[in-house]
Structures are given as structure tokens and as C-alpha cells.
């Protein structure tokens, strides 16, 4: 399918720019959103527009709260919205589940690499089991971030390779 070719091109470009510049550019995501809306409308009329619009909204709102809380970039939100506009609501949600799992693995790997994994586990242990406030650790230089375009792309690839999780 032509839309899948465009989807994987958009994902590939987004991964490269996210790794190199730590940004997913509007020049990629906005045309991808428009393409998804137009293509699906052309293929199935108003049903296609509905299919694409629902996917766009679901993709957008799945990452909107993490974005508002500062844990995600706007490009990541728009990329998932573009994916939703192309493949619809059900598939974007399924790819998001893979994305969340892969993103969690990336986060644990970064914590392990920065020697913060033990502190993280202690923090969870004390806050959940002892109802104590979250432990604080002296500030370390540098902010740990994940180029989340990579887990998003891997989530979509996983969906196509392994099928849905639900």
C-alpha cells in the first residue's frame, strides 16, 4: 500500500532528525498529517475522513499529557498524530502500546548507563510501599532525554511485524 510507504519514509526521516538534531520537524509531520487525511478521504470518502480524523485525534491525545508535563517534545506528539491520520485510531493505539514498552526499556537503559537505576528503584519502593515522600538525590549535571521518535518508529515497526497487543 502506498500509504505504508509514505508512513515508513516519514518515520525514517523523523528518526534521523530526532537522533541528529533532537527535533522532529513540522516540515515532516504537518504534510504527513495532511497526506493521511487526504489519502484516506480519497480512498473511502467521508468514512475515510472519519477514520483518519479519529486516528489523528487519538494519536495526538495519547502523547499530549506527557507533552504538557514536560516529558515529551511537540514533534513527538505531532508524529504520533500523523501516524494516526495515516493508519487510523485502532492501529495508532496499538503502535502506542509498543512505543510505551520500547520507550520504557530505553528509559531503564539510560538510568542504568547513568548509574541512576538503583536510586530510581529505591524511590519507587519507598513511595509505594512505605508511603514516604520521594527521596531526593543531589542534582547531577545534565538532563537525561530520550529521542522519542525512535521508540515511536520502533513501535510502528513492531505493530507491522508482530500485530496488535490487544
From TrEMBL:
InterPro entries: Prepilin_IV_endopep_pep, Prepilin_peptidase/N-MTase. Residues 6-108 form the Prepilin type IV endopeptidase peptidase domain. Keywords: Membrane, Transmembrane, Transmembrane helix. The keyword Nucleotide-binding does not apply. The chain crosses the membrane at residues 24-42, 48-70, 91-111, 117-134, 146-165. Gene3D superfamilies: 1.20.120.1220. Belongs to the peptidase A24 family. This is Prepilin type IV endopeptidase peptidase domain-containing protein. It comes from Sutcliffiella horikoshii.
